[in-house]
Amino acid sequence: MDFELNETQAMVRETARAFSDRVLRPRAGEFERAERVPSEVLKEMAGLGLMGVNVPEALGGSEAGAVSYALAMKEIARGCAATAVTMAVTNMVSEVIAGFGTAAQRETYVPRLVGGEYEAGSFALSEPGAGSDPGAMRTTAVRRGGSWVINGDKQWITSGDRAGVFVVWARTGGPGTAGLSAFLVEGKTPGLRVGKREDKMGIRASSTVPLVFEDCEVPSSALLGVEGGGFKIAMMALDGGRVGIGAQALGIGEGALDDARRYATERQQFGKAIAEFQAVQWMLADSHAELDAARWLVMRAAWLKESKRPFSQEAAMAKLTASETAWRVCNRAVQVHGGYGYTREFAVERRMRDSRVTMIYEGTSEIQRLVIARGALRG
Question: Where would I find the beta strands (DSSP E) of the chain?
Answer without folding.
Answer: 120-124, 140-144, 147-158, 163-171, 180-186, 192-194, 208-219, 223-224, 268-269, 272-273
